[in-house]
Design a protein that fits this description.
Order of helices and strands: EEEEEEEEEEHH
Radius of gyration: 15 Å
CATH architecture of the largest domain: Sandwich
Distance between the termini: 38 Å
Low-confidence stretches: none
Number of strands: 10
Shape: globular
Number of domains: 2
CATH topology of the largest domain: ATP Synthase, domain 1
Strand content: 35-45%
Largest sheet: 5 strands, mixed
Helix content: 25-40%
CATH superfamily of the largest domain: F0F1 ATP synthase delta/epsilon subunit, N-terminal
Length: about 130
């Protein structure tokens, strides 16, 4: 019996990723990192800035995501996001510019606590990427 499930990641431009042989996905949910395997209980959650890890066999693909909504049911994982990048395709200039933009937003007095939390988390994740 197969231990795999389906994943589809969609952003505003297109269907970003669609696979049928996924063995595990780790997502950066508001509740913390969630590991999803076949037959996981149905969930709906929001994403925070972080890394989505997609495992297929012996391969691991990593994607940086800004935000989004995740739904898992009937062994199908759907992720809707406004911003996602394959870590293989992202360069340090893009990461550094994103850090500067987030820090500029953080310096504003009128942002609320939730936005401040998300921006701080975004900066933390992006700084960890620029080190690697």
């Amino acid at each position: 019996m197969s231990e795999h499930f389906n994943i589809e990641i969609v952003n505003p431009e297109k269907s970003f990723l669609s696979k049928e042989n996924v063995s595990e996905v780790v997502i950066p949910a508001f509740e913390g990192e969630i590991g999803i395997l076949k037959d996981h209980i149905p969930i709906i959650s929001f994403l925070k800035p972080g890394i989505i890890k997609v495992f297929t066999g012996t391969e691991e693909e990593n994607y940086y995501v800004e935000d989004g909504i995740v739904e898992f049911k009937d062994n199908s994982l759907s992720i809707l996001t406004s911003s996602i990048f394959n870590l293989k395709d992202i360069d340090n200039n893009h990461i550094n510019n994103s850090i500067l933009e987030a820090e500029k937003e953080l310096s504003k007095d009128e942002i609320d606590d939730q936005k401040r939390f998300l921006l701080n988390h975004k900066v933390e994740v992006l700084k960890s990427l620029s080190i690697n």
